[in-house]
Design brief:
- With about 300 residues, this protein is of the alpha/beta class.
- It folds into 3 domains: about 110 residues, Alpha-Beta Complex (Conserved hypothetical protein from pyrococcus furiosus pfu- 392566-001, ParB domain), CATH 3.90.1530; about 100 residues, Arc Repressor Mutant, subunit A (Orthogonal Bundle), CATH 1.10.10; about 40 residues, no CATH class.
- The protein is about 50% helix and about 15% strand.
- It has a 6-stranded mixed beta sheet with strand order 1-2-8-4-7-3. The protein has a two-stranded antiparallel sheet with strand order 5-6.
- The chain is flat.
- The N and C termini lie far apart (about 55 Å).
Length: about 300
């Protein structure tokens, strides 16, 4: 492992940029990892080929000298448990398998990670903080971590709020979505079948109804949950919202403007970009091709 000489402190944890072998980044059974979206992974492979890895993976270990065996054999190596970047790691694996020469050229020293020496609980906080600070967060990313912090670590909403930079009322509304409905509905929420905002509203409504003395039955909760799961499924199917992936949906008008401003490219690549943009707009892809991720200033044509 090669460490960058520059490190910085964030609270009690030291953050170091390191370059490590891809296979040394492993998952930790104490954390929650969402399911992989293979369409998103494929788009990331294309992106990494063109731009490299813009955002390092985030890893941790409980102690600075912690070592583990990879694959259960061989000499122990420095522990790098994955906190954030599961889709990026999978894309790197696929790139290495399909194009070893490009992978080696891009990552001759190993893949970049931001490594921290923290506890599993603090890694959960870090994972949750990463998700709630995103513009588009999913129930699948947030609720299982909240559930683990409250059920296993017996933490209050106030304590969680302090660690993730959110208000106590925000966390309370989130927790209400996990404590007020029936177990079947909670399972749908943590699986991402109900959107974050809808889950919050459902939990708040049930809590308010019970507080006012209104009888709330499991059947009435399941009826409301059924409407919300249907609503979420329709959004994902229409492309208005993605089940996974980090890109905010970009309008067709914006996509067309960026496409028109593209510099001279081989016809084959322009047609490929156009096809990927169409797949993105109808929800079949969760990420844009790299050429359409940012606004491009049109090339000025000099007058002769």
């Amino acid at each position: 492992m090669k460490l960058n000489t520059e490190t910085k402190s964030s609270g009690p944890a030291v953050i170091a940029t390191a370059y490590v072998p891809l296979d040394h980044v492993v998952e930790n059974k104490g954390l929650h990892y969402r399911d992989l979206d293979q369409v998103h992974v494929a788009s990331l492979v294309d992106d990494i080929k063109v731009n490299g890895l813009d955002v390092p993976l985030i890893t941790f270990a409980e102690t600075a000298d912690k070592k583990i065996k990879i694959g259960g054999s061989g000499e122990p190596v420095a522990a790098h448990f994955l906190v954030a970047g599961r889709h990026r790691r999978e894309a790197l694996r696929k790139l290495r398998a399909s194009d070893a020469a490009t992978f080696k050229k891009l990552f001759p020293q190993g893949i970049p990670v931001n490594h921290r020496v923290i506890s599993v609980k603090d890694a959960l906080f870090l994972s949750l903080r990463e998700n709630v600070q995103r513009r588009e967060m999913t129930a699948e990313q947030i609720f299982p971590v909240l559930q683990k912090l409250t059920d296993e670590y017996k933490m209050t909403g106030k304590e969680i709020a302090k660690h993730i930079g959110k208000s106590t009322s925000w966390v309370s509304q989130m927790l209400a979505a996990l404590t007020e409905p029936d177990p079947e509905t909670v399972a749908e929420i943590t699986a991402g079948k109900i959107a974050v905002g809808d889950a919050r509203k459902l939990g708040a409504k049930i809590k308010a109804d019970r507080k006012s003395g209104k009888v709330v039955t499991k059947d009435s909760i399941r009826e409301e949950a059924g409407k919300l799961t249907t609503k979420q499924a329709a959004k994902v199917a229409s492309g208005a919202q993605r089940s996974t992936g980090d890109d905010r949906k970009t309008s067709l008008k914006k996509l067309y403007s960026r496409y028109q401003a593209l510099p001279n490219l081989p016809l084959g690549r322009k047609l490929q970009i156009l096809e990927l943009a169409i797949q993105y707009s109808i929800g079949e892809k969760s990420s844009l091709p790299p050429e359409l991720k940012k606004d491009i200033k049109p090339t000025k044509v000099e007058k002769k």
